[in-house]
Design goal:
The structure is a single chain. Helix content is 8%, strand content 52%. The protein has two domains: 107 residues, Immunoglobulin-like (Sandwich), CATH 2.60.40; 134 residues. By secondary structure, it is mainly β. InterPro entries: BatD. This is BatD protein. It comes from Photobacterium aphoticum.
Length: 273
C-alpha cells in the first residue's frame, strides 16, 4: 500500500505496509523524520528505522528517493483512514545550502475484515504469511517425585506479524505473565514472556516465548493439556490449525502425598467398618 490515496482490503491483524516515498531533484542533506501515525483500533509501528535509498531519471533529471515503511495492524473489522502524515526533510537548495521543510502525505483508506467465517473477535488466532510453533519439556530429575519441577516452554514464530498479537496459550491456566496458579496436582508459576520483533531487508519476523514451571504436589499420573490455536495464512489465503500436544508424567509419591491421595478412600473404608 503506497501513499497515493488508493483503497485496499486486508484481514484483521494482517500486517499492512504503508510506504512513504520522499524524492528531490537534488540530494538529501540531513535526516528525514516521519511523523507519528495514530489511528483508532490500529497498531502502528515503524519497525524499519532505515529508509531504502535509490535514484531515478525523469526527462534527463536525476531524482534522489527515500522509501520509508510503516507497519500497520488493524485490530477489528471496518474501514480505516490513515490521516496525512508530516514528513520533515532536509535537502540541498539551488544555491547549495541546506533547506528544511515539512511535507504531508495524502490520506489513505483501507478495509479490514475477518478472513474466515470460522473466526470471531474472541477466537485465539493471528495473521501471518508463515508460522511455526515449538515446545520443550524439562524436569528437575529423571524420576519425578512430589516437590520436583517440570518446565514447559512454548515458542511461536511468525513472519509478517507482531509479537504482541501472537497468542498467550497458557494464560487460561496461569492467568498471564508472572502469574501463579494452583491445582490439586501442581502449582504453576508463569515466567516473564519473551517477545521479539526483528526486521532484516524487509523480512519481518516475530517471536513469542512463554514458559511455565510446575511444582508437582501430588503423586500418580499427571496429564498436561493440549493447546490449539488458529492462524490465517495470508500467503495461501487459508485458515491453519495448530495443536501443541500435552504430555503425561508419572509422579512418585512421598509418604505425605500418598496419605493425602488415598486418605478419602481409607476414611470411607474405616467409616463403613
Amino acid at each position: 500500500m503506497g501513499d497515493e490515496g488508493e483503497k485496499a482490503a486486508f484481514s484483521v491483524n494482517e500486517q499492512v505496509i504503508l510506504s512513504i516515498d520522499v524524492s528531490t531533484p537534488r540530494w538529501f542533506t540531513g535526516g528525514t523524520r516521519i511523523g507519528r501515525v495514530d489511528i483508532p483500533n490500529v497498531i502502528a509501528k515503524q519497525r524499519n528505522q532505515l529508509a531504502t535509498n535509490y535514484t531515478t531519471r525523469d526527462q534527463g533529471q536525476t531524482w534522489s528517493h527515500q522509501r520509508w515503511e510503516i507497519t500497520l495492524y488493524p485490530q477489528q473489522s471496518g474501514q480505516f483512514t490513515i490521516p496525512p502524515i508530516a514528513v520533515n526533510v532536509q535537502v540541498s537548495g539551488e544555491d547549495g545550502q541546506s533547506v528544511r521543510g515539512t511535507v504531508q502525505t495524502a490520506p489513505v483508506t483501507f478495509d479490514a475484515r475477518l478472513p474466515s467465517a470460522l473466526l470471531t473477535q474472541e477466537s485465539i488466532w493471528f495473521t501471518a504469511s508463515e508460522a511455526d510453533v515449538s515446545q520443550t519439556w524439562q524436569s528437575s530429575t529423571e524420576t519425578l517425585h512430589v516437590g520436583d519441577a517440570v518446565t514447559r516452554t512454548i515458542t511461536i514464530t511468525a513472519k509478517d506479524s507482531l509479537s504482541v498479537l501472537l497468542p498467550d496459550l497458557m494464560a487460561a491456566e496461569t492467568g498471564g505473565d508472572h502469574a501463579v496458579a494452583s491445582s490439586r496436582d501442581y502449582q504453576a508459576y508463569a515466567q516473564p514472556h519473551q517477545l521479539s520483533d526483528t526486521q532484516t531487508r524487509g523480512d519481518y519476523q516475530s517471536r513469542r516465548t512463554e514458559q511455565t514451571i510446575y511444582i508437582l504436589q501430588m503423586g500418580g499420573d499427571i496429564q498436561f493439556p493440549d493447546y490449539t490455536f488458529y492462524w490465517w495464512d495470508t500467503q495461501h489465503q487459508t485458515l491453519q490449525t495448530e495443536t501443541v500436544v500435552g504430555k503425561s508424567f508419572h509422579i512418585a509419591h512421598t509418604w505425605r502425598s500418598w496419605l493425602a491421595y488415598y486418605w478419602p478412600m481409607l476414611a470411607s473404608v474405616i467409616i463403613s467398618c
